[in-house]
Amino acid sequence: MLPAQPNQSLIDGLSVLQALAGSGKAIGSRELARLLDMEPTKANRLLKTLAAIGVAQQQPDRKYVPGPGMHVLSAQSLHGSGLIRDVVPHLEKLLQPGRIAAMGVLWRDQTCYLYHANHEMPTPMAMGAAELYPASRSGIGRVMLASLSNQQVRDLYHNREIDGFDSVNDLLKELKLIRTQGYAIARPENRFTTVAVGLGSNPTYAAIALSSSQMNQQQIDASVEELIQVKSLITSQRGEG
Q: Are residues 215 and 145 in the same domain?
């Protein structure tokens, strides 16, 4: 929820920063302005400001790419939070043929994967390997959404379509079930089954998940138990009550 007097310039600057980081290619100010529904002059001014402090970098074709400052921020944030260091070694032990292990966070109405790997994937390739994915379709996303209040969920999806659900009330029914059972199940497009549990409480700051081809209930229960054990180890390691 925004404060009574939000700093719109800060919000716009962070939106430009996030769009640049997630573009996956060099991007011009006009293209970025269209992407964010922003005035081109404002987008251009913000990009130039980010370039001036080294967070963005302008190429000879006048398009922008992430600059060294963005990589520094990324490294500092991952190191400072300790999430990768504390969680990934435990998830790697769960990897088996035909199985995917993942960790992610909620970004607006999207799941951002910090780690997403199968048993053959080297850890460096698994870091941030998956693109943003609709939270309502993701096991990790659903767990994170379930940690929000019903009003926060309604505000998040106000006048917007919800992937996988006909209405916000249908989504809220699913989130109520997740809160009761303590884990989420997602079967996007019926291709595989994902089970996920949250890390932390008040707030839930991330979630971990296991995925494989269409699990039966016994396999779901076993995967949930594995994730709960990993969660307990992470909680103890991070000194969380």
A: yes
The range of the structural domain enclosing residue 120 comes to 82-237
Token pair of 161, please?
Answer: 């379509």
Q: Helices (DSSP H) in 147-181: which residue ranges?
A: 150-156, 168-181
3 found inside a domain: no
Pair 16, 43: CB distance under 8 Å: yes
Q: Confidence band (pLDDT; 50, 70, 90) for 192?
A: confident
**Contact (Cβ atoms closer than 8 angstroms) between residue 209 and residue 196:** yes
Dist. CA 211–CA 220, nearest whole Å: 10
* pLDDT attached to residue 129: 64
Query: In terms of domains, do 55 and 137 share one?
Result: no
pTM: 0.85
Of 5, 61, 8, 1, which Cα lies nearest the Cα of 36? 8
Does residue 206 sit within a domain? yes
- Residue 2 counted as domain residue: no
pLDDT at 59: 94
- Tally of helices (H runs) and strands (E runs) in the chain: 10, 8
